[in-house]
Amino acid sequence: MQMIPLCRMVEHWSAIQKDRVAIYHDGETITWGELDRQTNRLARAYEAIGVGQDDFVTIALPNGIEFFKSTIATWKVGATPQPVSAKLPKFERDQIVDVGSPKLITGVPDGSHQGYQTLPTGYEPDPALSDAQLPEKIASSFKAMTSGGSTGRPKLIVTTAPAVWDIDADRLHTQIQGSMLIPGPLYHNGPFVWAMSAFFRGCQITITTRFDAEETLALIEQQQIDIVYMVPTMMQRIWNLPEEVRTGYDLSSLKVLWHLAAPCPAWLKEAFIGWLGADVIWELYGGTEAQGGTVISGPEWVTHRGSVGRPNATCEIIVVNEEGERLPPNEIGEVFLRPLTGQGSTYRYIGAEAKAIDGGFESIGDMGYFDEDGYLYLADRQTDMILSGGANIYPAEVEAAIDSFPGVRSSAAIGLPHEDLGNYVHAIVDAPEGIIEEDLLNHLGERLVRYKIPRTIEFSNEPMRDDAGKVRRKSLRQDRL
């Protein structure tokens, strides 16, 4: 075991491989030595602003080297990074800032958040600041991720894990001083955790501004990638490339492909197993809250087709009926998880409450069942959350934005099947007097990040909510299916 504080992580690897590339992004690189010196200076700039022990720093930067610099500088002053999408409309970012009350927001225009310290994209600290090492400070939480909520208001999921890391622990089959590719947005928990866990093991991290199927294959070849993070939408876009393009790159360096964040169609997983080999394909199921989860290898999946694996050794997972009673194998119910260390030991919410049952088991909204061998299979989600391209979209959040438009009486946002994304957002809008769709879309563009904006809108004269104020999403979806 080699536990290293995250404030010392870049210094540790710089001493071993200071001239090796630490991060590659769109042809731009930075070495471990450069990264250490530059983040020392940036950390001092953060300290001068007032960022200190266990403060939140909201990082609204796009994928790139600057995102890593801001995150590392945050750890170096003993604070907690709290990433958000760089594309968030200010209205939505304001809500997150109100929940988290960060000491600093990076990646936003100067003065854009009254009462909060801000730094714009491209900020460079005063070159007169020292780039020497700083005193050791360890944040009590190494990350605070953002999620939507069933109320339509965002929440923060703050890990209880402090800002230290055992670099000898092989959590995700990463190689020491290997090479990882992250083609997903770093403000999401999956890409963030995969990127940082490999970074902490001295890997070069290759990131892209946005996902491109052929570019992903080219980068695996060019950067000698041995491990890659994907969601099923990415896998499908790669598979849809012309065969001569897909097979035209040398992927022999690739040892591990992780996929998660959304259900993977069985045919697609079989296709990738046949193409890259079963030993390469790994799947993880779990939530940002880290109450527990499952992992399944390719060979295991072949013998338990459609499963997401057996519970990890650190947790318990049960399937219960509506009365909270545990169900026998092959009966579908709601999935509940509990860490062996007890409820609340892996995270805390800011702005929400967990859904729990007796014994401290918590739900992240999934339905499923176990087989006789203890393998978990997922069914439809208990909640109405829409999974689109690996991203979670809460209908209440979309509906709140629609309902704020003049003339809208009520609305419902549902997920409908999409060959590429898995699901897309379809909105049913109750507007008795009639409104112009283009005006509504412009309104939503100011309030929602692009992937949450409905791709299709249907207008209705019927209320979307019953007398109890509940939206009939399930029946609305069934009607349209």
What report would you give on this structure?
With 481 residues, the chain is an alpha/beta fold. The protein has 3 domains: 7-17 and 28-164, ANL, N-terminal domain (Rossmann fold), CATH 3.40.50; 276-381, Luciferase, domain 3, CATH 2.30.38.10; 386-480, ANL, C-terminal domain (GMP Synthetase, Chain A, domain 3, 2-Layer Sandwich), CATH 3.30.300.30. The protein is 26% helix and 27% strand. The protein is built from 13 helices and 28 strands. The strands form 7 sheets. Strands 3-2-12-11-13-14-15-16-17 form a 9-stranded mixed sheet, with helices on both faces. Strands 18, 19, 21, 22 and 23 form a 5-stranded antiparallel sheet that branches. Helix 5 (189-199) links the parallel strand 11 and strand 12. The chain starts with a strand and ends with a helix.
- CATH fold category name of the largest domain: Rossmann fold
Poorly predicted ranges (pLDDT <50, ≥5 residues)? none
| Percent of sequence in beta strands | 25-35%
Helix content: 25-40%
CATH homology superfamily name of the largest domain: ANL, N-terminal domain
> How many E-type strands?
28
Per CATH, the class of the largest domain reads: Alpha Beta
Number of domains in the coordinates?
A: 3
Please give the CATH architecture of the largest domain: 3-Layer(aba) Sandwich
Radius of gyration, Cα only, in angstroms?
23 Å
| Distance, first to last CA | 53 Å
